[in-house]
Amino acid sequence: MSTYYVDKFLYTVDRDPEWVWRYQEDPEATVEEWEKEVGQWLNDVEQTSWLTFTDEERRALAAHDYVWLFEHGAHFFLNLTLFIALYDEQYARERGPLSFQREFATRLQHWLGKDYPSVAL
After folding, report:
1. What is the CATH number for 8?
2. Could you tell me the pTM of the whole model?
3. pLDDT tens digits, one per residue of 76-92
C-alpha cells in the first residue's frame, strides 16, 4: 500500500467540503476524479506520474472501508476524521452523539492488544 498516497487522499478530501460531499455521494467516481485532479500534484507546480492507487486501495476507498485502510497502514487520525465528516451527522441523528465514533472503535476492536499497523512506506 502507498500509505503516502492514501493518506494524501484522506487529508485533502477531508479539508474540502466539496470533496467530502462528492466522496459521500459517489465514492468510486470521486476516487477516480481525485486521482486525476489532485493526486498527481506534489505541490502547486510539480506533478508526478508514478503515484497511483492499487486496485485494493481503490476498492477500499470506494467502499468507505476504513477498517481495511487502517489495517493496511492508513494514518489512524486521517482515516477517522474523514469518516467522521462523512457519517457523524447521520449517525448522531439516528443513534445519538458519538455513534459513529463508537462504531469505528467497535469495528477495530480486534486490534486491542496488538501492535499498531505499520505506517512505513
Report:
1. 1.10.700
2. 0.85
3. 889 999 998 988 888 88
